[in-house]
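Appendix B. Chain record.
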Amino acid sequence: MKFVVKLFPEITIKTRPVRKLLTKQLSTNIRNVLLRISSDVRVKNGWDAIEVYTKGSATETLNDDVYDALTCIPGIAYVNRVREFELGSFDDIIKNTLTVWGDALAGKTFVVRVKRTGKHDFKSTDVERYVGGGIRQQSQARAVDLHNPDVLIRLEIRDDRLMVIDRRRKGLGGFPIGGADSTVSLVSGGFDSTVASYQMIRRGIRTHYLFFNLGGAAHENGVKEVIYYLWKKYGSSHRVKFVSVPFEGVVEEILEQVEDRYMGVVLKRMMMRAANAVAQKLKVDSYVTGEALSQVSSQTMMNLRLIDEVADRLVIRPLAVSDKQTIVDQCREIGTASFVERIPEYCGVISRKPNAACKRNDLLAAESAFNLEVLDAALASAKAESIDEMDWQPTEEMEQALNERLKPESAVVIDVRHPNEIEQAPLDAGDHEIIQLPFYSLNRQFKALDQSREYLLFCDKGVMSKMHALHLSDAGFKNVGVYRKAD
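Structure tokens predicted for this chain:
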């Protein structure tokens, strides 16, 4: 089977040396990806297109796998699956075209479009007229329709070869990875950071991943799952790093020391400071975030300016002017939504009255109470893994049977919400004993509880409680589950 890979138009308008370099990089990327599928694949570089061949003995399944992989490699505009023949006469072109398209034309309108490369004593339009008329006479097609046909037959003539395109699929577009700089994307596993990372990959940027762990092993596991899927499907031509920084202590320090209305902005500034150090180790000059303007209080222009103030590299925000629904829709298009929706979201540093327009001097005064040694300790404990070798489990496997081993009737309910939330909406858990242990202290203090008893964690959305229950279970505590209020 032969596939013809068409270059993304922005590649074809580059200067000759740049176009040659990008095309060579794309060929290399295609080889890197396809050789993981099969060693029986050959890639031939060209000026206008890249040709990919599978052996004649290749199964239809293998050909489909190759086709699917090609449509997910950045830098490709279209992938044509073709049947190749010797050029021959115009009548030969009709015969060979009908071997591919004959059965599909019955009762339908069609048109023939020809692209020609090389020296010939005829024009492309000559072939279109002759072959179109011949197919009309020799098939059960209903008619030729030049403007709105049911079937579009694409033919390519290259020197003495005829290629009949029997299927055409749209590629990812963008530029080949490795043709530009590298970056590190700050990821949470949510819609925004996932889509922002995808957009950088599509633009040809080799993208590493930086995760600030706010909820333990279960949180990290879920993020690894979605990021691994993203890399495997769209960026696997290059190995990248996944860096995890334990940020629970940072959150705890903020909640205990920083004035309520500045918490969100201070947290983002701490993340930027950490990103400075990680980017330096990775030798990249930028970082990427999934922030969109005014989506939350910390993402107003004024607050983003204050956040960027501590960054020592370029901050890229691909989604800056995107609305949430557009972001969610793209997440579904690229196939990551089902993973993202299973990841427990971090309930966050919740400010009761977040300040959407922090003043610099006030923010600095609020931040001055933060002990930066806590941030240094988090960075010292950071872990970097090659993404193709990192340790993780599918989230669904971890979530199964979380409560099956417990007796929920006699369990103690632990309210893990922020004290402000508890004050605003106290929990009524019926006959259950309730204790309050904020999520940011839970992992550290749970071991001091009476381990002969069983515990059910509670938060309003049910995601933070599940995340921490999974984390504690991974740590060896088999007496913890999730509490959900009766409807």
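Further analysis of this model is presented in Appendix C.
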